[in-house]
Amino acid sequence: MDVERTVAGVGPRLRRLRTTAGATLAEVGAATGISVSTLSRLESGGRKATLELLLPLAEHFEVGLDELVHPDRPPTRRPARARSGGTGATFVPLSAVPGGLRAYKLVLEPGAGEESDEQNVHEGYEWVYVMSGRLRLRLGVDDFQIAGGEAAEFDTRLPHRVSNPGAVVTECLVLFGRQGERMHVRARPRGVRSR
Length: 195
Known about the structure:
alpha+beta, 3-stranded antiparallel sheet, about 25% strand
């Protein structure tokens, strides 16, 4: 392995991840705790990448270290336990391209998320399609029950929480845009007009 060439390629990959996500150096710096000048030097090759710098960046962009260092290798996606919402929730990443809209399969065991009323708030926009079971979606003071075959979309800057109020496993498809990107849904094929 050509170590110098591999390390030199990290900066351009970081810049590509950031620009694809539509983020500024200041936004990435605020999210990772890395100074803007350090990020700029990393991207331009003026500073060598270290593990201490790459770990928070990989977590922020939701990619593995291998994708930052060896982009030619196919990415490996492993199910990851949800970081919040309690036990019984599993997010399985479905999209291989970092940045922009991301797709996940969300599996909620019976009762998952029901143990707390705490709601999350963060930048972004989310679209949820319930494949099976029943999903409880709390948006501020509103409380919705979404059945299999139904969908919901919401701005994640609103306080929100999802849970499974039922006695069976709930499976959902989730699309999430970090910078507020919205998924575009076409209700009918082009050329077909409603009457």
